[in-house]
Amino acid sequence: MADAEAVPAAKRNADLPVRIASAVVMLALVVGAIAMGEDYVSGLVAIVAALAFVEYCLLVIKATPSIGLRGTGVAFGLFYFGFAAWVLMRLDSYFLIAAIGAVIFTDTGAYFSGRTIGGPKIAPKISPSKTWAGLVGGMVFAGLWLSLVAAMFFFTSEGGDLGAVWAVGYDKIISAFLVGCVLAVVAQAGDFFESWLKRRAGAKDSSRLIPGHGGVFDRVDGMIPVALVVGLLSSAA
Question: What residues have CB less than 8 Å from 173, skipping those under 6 apart?
Fold first, then answer.
């Protein structure tokens, strides 16, 4: 099988429109739910978490050789998905959009950097396509997103005064960039966790629920751990 860097750029980027469409749909669903109210946000989170948890359990069943290990895996998943969903349901719109955007921009930055730069793999036996260049790209994109969200917050709170935005919140904007970098690493860790589980289960995707995209767990694998971290950060804010 040819290395990604050896494949013509047009072929390597053939799935880009699909990935962009996926990101747009995800953001549209979240923004629409936020616009309609907290109950709709909670409902959307609950449905997504439940579907992802079911897919996770099916992978655990395939990946584990004994009932004891399966029970342990399912119990862990119940906490992992359940607590993340509980956190997301209680985040205000500012933190919710920041968290979801961080995951999307991590994926986008990693995609472009990994495909463009290539280079050494992080853990080829777990996820052959993940490179260090992709991780750095994801960190930068997520950091810029969090910086933008923070700047918009200060822009609104300062009545649209651009000079006041930097004067009042420059340190927090820089801190937001660093937080975005950390969240990108967390999101990638969630991605690696699912990749490891799928390899143990001998599965390419968590399911075939979403045509061309695999399963729900495949789409939110990075969101779960990010939700947990953002929940901790929001409680300390």
Answer: 147, 150, 151, 154, 166
